Amino acid sequence: MTExxxxxxxxxxxxxxxxxxxxxxxxxxxMPVEDLLTVLDAxxxxxxxxxxxPWRFIYVLRDKDGWDEAVALLMEAxxxxxxxxxxxxxxxxxxxxxxxDGGWADNAGHAFDSGSAWMAASLQAKMLGYDTxxxxxxxxxxxxxxxxxxxxxxxxxxxxIGKYGRKEDLPEALQExxxxxxxxxxxxxxxxxxxxx
Length: 197
Known about the structure:
This protein has 197 residues and is an alpha+beta fold.
């Protein structure tokens, strides 16, 4: 087993999986665009069915034009804290893929593959000393409109990235939640030979 970040795995794993978590307390400082592009380059190498690579990222840096408009694309509960991040990244995925005869077909794995890309970005960010917090609480229609996302793409999620700040700067209700979460036991999610509900 591995212990790190007040967490403990059941088997020996790399500590980065325990160290990565989704805090809300960011320090409000900008980050170099090169660091953000390093994070997103790592996600480029995520596994992808048929090597389609359906994910796309749209980013806004806090020290650039459009920051307040980007924060407004989050649901209000996320705006409260995500406005202190160094960058916001919006992930969209292509719901179609080219088939062998050159026509377009539905890509059933677009969301699955995009989730792999998000995890790669999150781990690379942690390796660079940044934290990330993924969000489903976003205004997907407004994001698509704001950034000109084509109809055959879907808005998947957004994530905030930055250096960890002070939890005392969060609203009191969020301060209580500002700690790495635990996980279900392996026995609840891994089964040999058949499914156990």
